[in-house]
Amino acid sequence: MNYTASLFVSLISLALLASCGGGSGERSEKITTPQPTVPTPPVVDAIFTEDNAGDIAIWSTVLTEASINAADIIEQEIIWFHHAPENILISL
Question: Who's near 48: CB < 8 A, 6+ residues apart?
Fold first, then answer.
């Protein structure tokens, strides 16, 4: 079969496939889309009480300062690496 005949057969087959609609009739079952589950938020009253308010404040301060210190260290390393000699990564 030559190229023209092969193209003609392909186009006819494609036209027949499109004309049939690809359907097997109506579906008897209803299609439903899955619904995402919504997580329930935690109960905030149980987390913050008068007994642990001081501990939460201390831990908030400690974590904030630790984050700032980590950011400072990372910044210093980036600045050092930026100003490092060009051959710093070449192994000896």
Answer: 56
3 state SS for the chain: CCHHHHHHHHHHHHHHHHHCCCCCCCCCCCCCCCCCCCCCCCCHHHHCCCCCHHHHHHHHHHHHHHHHHHHHHHHHHHHHHHCCCHHHHCCC
Region 43-67 average pLDDT: 83
d(CA 27, CA 83): 69
What pLDDT sits at residue 22? 56
Q: What is the mean pLDDT of the chain?
A: 76
Selected residue with higher pLDDT from 67 and 19? 67
Is-contact 46 38, C-beta < 8 A? Answer: no
